[in-house]
Write a structure and sequence with these properties.
The protein contains two helices and four strands; from the N terminus they run βαββαβ. The chain has about 70 residues and is α+β, with helices and mostly antiparallel strands. It has one domain. The strands form two sheets. A two-stranded antiparallel sheet has the order 1-4. A two-stranded antiparallel sheet has the order 2-3. A hairpin with a 4-residue loop joins strand 2 and strand 3. The structure holds iron/sulfur cluster (SF4).
Length: about 70
């Protein structure tokens, strides 16, 4: 089973994510299906969605099946 990767979120992460235009949320993934607002591979998306990531959270959860488009 693929387990997500957790990473601490801090100001350095946010700065570098913005500087390098890091894509990592479901809405930026090639497997995201906007028609069903979910993952085409049927993975749970709650921890990887943009809204959750932009909220004030202590960690970022990366999906191992993320695929850049
Ligand atoms: S593969 Fe992972 S990152 Fe991509 S849509 Fe599915 S759950 Fe989200």
């Amino acid at each position: 089973m693929l387990r997500p990767v957790h990473s601490r979120r801090d100001s350095r992460f946010d700065d570098e994510a913005a500087r390098f235009r890091l894509a990592y949320v479901c809405e930026e993934c090639g497997h995201f299906d906007p028609r069903c607002d979910g993952c085409a591979h049927e993975w749970p998306t709650a921890l990887h969605r943009r809204a959750r990531t932009l909220a004030a959270t202590a960690d970022v959860v990366f999906c191992k099946e993320f695929e850049a488009v």
